[in-house]
Every structure is written in C-alpha cells, then in structure tokens.
UniProtKB/TrEMBL annotation:
This is SHSP domain-containing protein. It comes from Corchorus olitorius. It comes from the Eukaryota. SUPFAM superfamilies: HSP20-like chaperones. Signal peptide: none annotated. It is found in: Cytoplasm. GO terms for cellular component: cytoplasm. Belongs to the small heat shock protein (HSP20) family. GO terms for biological process: response to stress. Residues 47-155 form the CS domain.
Amino acid sequence: MSLIPSFFGNRRSSVFDPFSLDVWDPFKDFPFPSSSLATQTPETSAFVNTRIDWNETPEAHVFKADLPGLKKEEVKVEIEDDRVLQISGERNIEKEDKNDTWHRVERSSGKFMRRFRLPENVKMDQVKASMENGVLTVTVPKVEDFPFPSSSALTTQNPETSAFVNTRIDWKETPEAHVFKADVPGLKKEEVKVEVEDDRVLQISGERNMEKEDKNDTWHRVERSSGKFMRRFRLPENVKMDQIKASMENGVLTVTVPKVEMKKPDVKAIDISG
C-alpha cells in the first residue's frame, strides 16, 4: 500500500466534499439457478462502490474502507495539496479455467477510487494507513486547538448499512470441487461459522458488530455494513460432505467442497467377425 503525495488538481473524479450520500444499492439476492451463470451482473463488473466510513474523533479523522481480497500492495492512499484524500486500487477478476462452471457470481471486481476533501484542521503530512482482515484504515491527525470546528455531522446510518445481510458470495465448480468465496471484511475466522446439514445444505453465517461509539466522536459518513448475516446453499449429490475445508485471508472466506470422483465406466472391446 502506498501513501503518496499527489498534486493533480484537475483529475476527472468526484471529490466527496461533505456530505452527499451516494451509497450503492446492495446486490439483491436472486433464486438459485440450476444452470451455470456465464455472465456477470452490472453490480459485479466494477468494484467502484467501495464502502467507507468517516469518523472524526477529538484527535483525528479516521477512514475505514471495506476492501476484501486486496493486499496492501494493491491499494493506493494519496493526498493532494488542496486537502484531498484519495483511496484507489483494483481487484482483478479471478482467472477462469475452461473446465470451471460458475453457479453464482456476486463479488465485485475492477477498479475503484474514492476522494474526500478534508477540513482545515488536519495534519496532511502525518497521514497513516494500515490494512487488516480486508479493511483499510486511514488516520489523519488533527491540529491541536484549531479555532474552527469541523464540518457538520452525519448522525444516522443509511438503511443499507444497518445490516450485514447482503454478504456477496461466488460459487464456482471446478473438476475437483465446489468453491465458495465470501466477502466478509473486518471479520476474524472465529467470528464466522461454516456449517453443513445432513440434506446437503451449506450454511455460512456470522456477525460484524457495530463500532463502539464515543460521545466525543462525529460520524461524517457511514456506509460499511454491520449486523448478522446468513447464506444457505443446497449442494448437488456429487460432493464429499465430510471433507469440506474453509480458510480466511484478507477478509475473504473460501469454502472448498470436494467432489466425488466419478468412476470411469469399464470399456470392453468387441471383436468384429467377418
């Protein structure tokens, strides 16, 4: 992850100058398809609607962005001389194999960029950034005893951010296994449950708690989701339910369900008389 001073004042990108709301519409759940899903929906073709919270504490402005699946080297945090903070990066589309079948595609990919104009009471030369469990945190310290207050507060959450129920999941079938990938930024593996039921139902659930609020904090922007989530998938018959494995990395849960090896039919050659 790079922290780069930038001086391109005429870029063709919108700066968030508090406090317009442009929270993206969450991906609406759709019925389980029986056939493979060959195309991506518009919501998944670009990773442009990265959700970001902006919290002002007595000491600093703190930005938190959900970037599941990205490493710190794939994210840029830049500052411009007119007090503009820019967060950008790209999540590449997963490499496809001609033998793979996509049953479900919900997770986003592509480039993203978000820009925020900061108030005057900040130390632009002391900005710090870190990544953990798929969440980017950018801290912009404030000038002590600044005579003017920061801009107005956003005290309510948008309805789309009040529940973490729209967890996006991809389901890919390879020749060897069914592979599920879920975006669960900010969660640790202990906070996610992967369960199987005897009628071949895979259940993924968990909860991301709302960040603890302090009476001295001011929320300028609230986009990131919190609350409980649960997704259930009925698996086909050709799976080994007792060999399911799960792992977490950079805010992405991967569940691998091995397939039963199909026995090749015995072929007997028949002599042709005559």
